[in-house]
Amino acid sequence: QWQLVESGGGLVQPGGSLTLSCAVSGFSLDSYSMGWFRQVPGKEREGVSAISIFGGRTDYADSVKGRFTISRDDAKNTVYLQMNSLKPEDTAVYYCAAHYSTRSSYTSLAASDYDYWGRGTQVTVSS
Q1: Helix (H, G, I), strand (E, B), or coil: what is residue 115?
Q2: pLDDT of residue 73
Q3: Would you say 98 and 24 are in contact if contact means Cβ atoms under 8 Å apart?
Q4: Distance (Å, whole) CA 78 – CA 25
Q5: So what's the pLDDT on residue 103?
Q6: What are 34-77's pLDDT values in tens digits?
Q7: What tens digit of pLDDT does each residue of 72-112 get?
Q8: Is 38 helix (H, G, I), strand (E, B) or coil?
């Protein structure tokens, strides 16, 4: 039974930092490209960041470039999203997702490309 479990969300002041984790079980992460997405009520799920298998390529939405960093530890079957200089507009539920891929350079910020999803963790940026 596969499972993706996000953690690390919470309430943070503007300018603060959080690190999200996505622990994967039920399959080996090393054959999957991974992505982080976020969603606020009434809006479509937005791609935030993605990382290829082996971690050789990363991709970011323009709104988070220079502030967020995605990484993966295949030995721990875990993906991370380091979020710095957080803004109120970063407030959302953050989801991780997995896409089976054999291409070492593959990344995608399109939700429709992903096969497995976690249930999300809430991030609130507010003073």
Answers
A1: coil
A2: 96
A3: yes
A4: 9
A5: 87
A6: 999 999 999 999 999 999 999 999 999 999 999 999 999 999 99
A7: 999 999 999 999 999 999 999 999 999 999 888 999 999 99
A8: strand
Residue whose structure tokens are 């896409």: 99
Cα–Cα dist 32/13, whole Å: 33
For residue 15, give the DSSP letter: T
DSSP assignments along 46-100, one per residue = EEEEEE-GGG--EEE-TTTTTTEEEEEETTTTEEEEEE-S--GGG-EEEEEEEEE
Which tokens belong to 34?
């991974």
Long-range contacts of 111-119 (CB under 8 A, 24+ apart): 111/37, 111/44, 111/45, 111/47, 114/35, 116/2, 116/4, 116/27, 116/32, 117/4, 118/3, 118/4, 118/5, 118/6, 118/22, 119/5, 119/6, 119/95
Token digits of residue 60: 């970011």
β 10-12/121-125 pair status: parallel
